[in-house]
Amino acid sequence: MSEQFTDRLWRKVQPIWEAYLDHPFVKGIGDGTLNKEKFKHYMKQDYVYLIEYSRVFAIGSAKAPDLETMTMFANLLHGTLTMEMELHREYAAKFGITNEELEATEPSSTMTAYTSYMLNVSQLGGVENAIAAVLACAWSYNYIGKELVKWPGAADHEFYGNWVRMYSSEDFTEIAENCKNLINEYATGKLERELQALEDIVVKTSKFEYMFWEMAENIEMWPTDKIQSTVG
Ligand SMILES: Cc1ncc(CO)c(N)n1
């Protein structure tokens, strides 16, 4: 089989994605030692992240040139709002956080920067930009999930096991594979400079993913929070 666009992308992002597996937050999920306050912060930020991420699927659906692509985006949107975000609602319940409180989470600087970037690039250009914007998200989480599930005890951990099982699951793998298939389909026949632009989106979102793990590990909101201010 000839080389796919995702093979080329993989070579570009591999060093960044391998660093996720080496990140203390991700390793903490895998070996079950992660501090729960860090995970709680992550869950809340990730929930509001997923709301904006869902909007990118909606933009992709609106821009889709045919019903097959439109349906694909609609399914990805539905899968995120139901299956994936249900995981967050379940964890929130364990922390005593209601769905309303979860949805009203104040966004951190990293979450705001990342989702603003994704939404911006997906409003520009064609449907392929929306696919590129979400690709590293779905694919890298599946990559992490499929790696962590091999760690002894990770999938059966009483607290973090649900997370590991979700992102390594067949359903989530299908989400990631659908995103990969879409980008390969839309990359076909594109000019090198167009492929370069898509690659840039996937690399940037991969960097934002790393920042998201950092934000979670350090329980970050806004760097300016330390400034005494009455502005709020
Ligand atoms: C930050 C982030 N990226 C990707 C995913 C996977 O959908 C997620 N839940 N959160």
Automatic annotation (TrEMBL):
EC numbers: 3.5.99.2
Domain Thiaminase-2/PQQC: 10-217
Keyword Hydrolase set for record: yes
SUPFAM superfamilies (UniProt xref): Heme oxygenase-like
Pathway membership: Cofactor biosynthesis; thiamine diphosphate biosynthesis
Catalytic activity: thiamine + H2O = 5-(2-hydroxyethyl)-4-methylthiazole + 4-amino-5-hydroxymethyl-2-methylpyrimidine + H(+); 4-amino-5-aminomethyl-2-methylpyrimidine + H2O = 4-amino-5-hydroxymethyl-2-methylpyrimidine + NH4(+)
Top-tier EC class: hydrolase
Keywords, in A-Z order: Hydrolase, Thiamine biosynthesis
Superkingdom of origin organism: Bacteria
Molecular functions per Gene Ontology: thiaminase activity
Record's keyword annotation contains Phosphoprotein: no
Subunit structure: Homotetramer.
Similarity-based family: Belongs to the TenA family.
Described function: Catalyzes an amino-pyrimidine hydrolysis reaction at the C5' of the pyrimidine moiety of thiamine compounds, a reaction that is part of a thiamine salvage pathway.
Protein name per Swiss-Prot or TrEMBL: Aminopyrimidine aminohydrolase
Lineage per the UniProt record: Bacteria, Bacillati, Bacillota, Bacilli, Bacillales
